[in-house]
Amino acid sequence: MKPLDMNDVKEYVNKNIVDFHCAKINSLSKIDLKGILKKKNPYLFKAKNLNVASDLIRNLLDAFLSSSEEKLFGDFLESLAIYISGITCNGQKSSATGIDLEFTNKHIHYIVSIKSGPNWGNNAQQKRQEDDFKTAVKVLKQSKHVKHIEPVLGICYGRSKISWVRSAWKIMGQNFWYFISENESLYIDIIEPLGNEAKKHNDLFNKEKEILINRFTALFLNEFCNAGEINWKKLVEYNSGNIDLGNPLFS
Residue 153 in 3-state DSSP? Predict the structure, then answer.
């Protein structure tokens, strides 16, 4: 592999982390209160004794934004890994379904699916990833130019030994970043530039979020509260009311 200049990596992170923060802020403008009320568990909110409208709205938004943020940052880490492998071994974005990165090192052709963290996907999604690996390997074996193929599930953070799982090598944390760079300290070195100007971006995000909480609280009070008290019956009916007595299942 070619050596990695950390100044190039830092410059890439500084430039592209802004897109992550902007995407976070833009995601706030796309949230619809009634839309997320249909997706989240009203029974859980009641069990947590969330009887203050603003507290319920804050919890609702935090739960929604957490999954959205993980996806956005996962996309950033994927792009960073592809950028680094592009420098070290001419890696490039793969066009194969379910595969993010392809590169060749020491006469081995690697196909890599990148996940941000170890707790990704349910059983069906993991099975689909396994099928994608098998399909990609089968297609590549038809090429005369590719002799040795290794499928890899690369996970950006977490601590576990390298293992063979669902038709691919699972490589996690430091091992993954070393795998694409042969730099033992890369997994630590990339943390510093991630924090550059983070406070400025987070302050702006939090300001917009507080405005959204206030707006959604006013809407919630008007739609799902009686004299300031949450109407749980109406909220649960909105979230889950769909009785279909005409269905043969209930006959």
Answer: strand
